[in-house]
Amino acid sequence: MPTQNESEDRIALLQGTLDLLILKTLVMGPCHGQGIARSIQRQSEQVFFVDHGSLYLALQRLEDKKWLSAKWGVSENNRKARFYSLTAKGREQLVQKASEWQRLSRAMELILGS
């Protein structure tokens, strides 16, 4: 459980950003929701904390768009869990969304770096 200061230092994720992070995480292979959240937190060096409510809404939205597929399985702690996988359509979206984010990031860098 994060401390007060750790919670204040974490950055809230915008909807589109969370979608992109989920897609990128699943490039490595199928994963359940808790594993996705932990991976994003670990890869961001504890800066991003994914609220479970937001995560599962995003996973459902991405599945509805056919960017992800899901099937039931058993997690590493022997619990029933849905494992999400990236679809071909999801891979296309990852490329597109990552390109958009890189353009946005570059523009912010140009403005803030002045």
Can you put this structure into words, describing what you see?
The protein is α+β, with helices and mostly antiparallel strands and 114 residues long. The chain has one domain: Orthogonal Bundle (Arc Repressor Mutant, subunit A), CATH 1.10.10. Helix content is 59%, strand content 14%. It contains five helices and three strands, in the order H-H-E-H-H-E-E-H. Strands 1-3-2 form a three-stranded antiparallel sheet. Strand 2 and strand 3 form a beta hairpin. Helix 2 packs across helix 4. The longest helix has 25 residues.
Kindly summarize this structure in a few lines.
This protein has 114 residues and is of the alpha+beta class. The protein is built from 5 helices and 3 strands; from the N terminus they run ααβααββα.
Task: Write a concise keyword list for the protein shown above.
single chain; 114 residues; alpha+beta; Arc Repressor Mutant, subunit A; 3-stranded antiparallel sheet; 5 helices; 59% helix; globular
Present the secondary structure layout.
Elements: H1 4-9, H2 15-26, E1 31-32, H3 33-43, H4 52-64, E2 68-74, E3 80-86, H5 88-112
Antiparallel strand pairs: 1-3, 2-3
Helix pairs in contact: 2-3, 2-4, 2-5
Number of domains: 1
Total helix count? 5
What is the 3D shape?
globular
Provide the β-strand percentage band: 5-15%
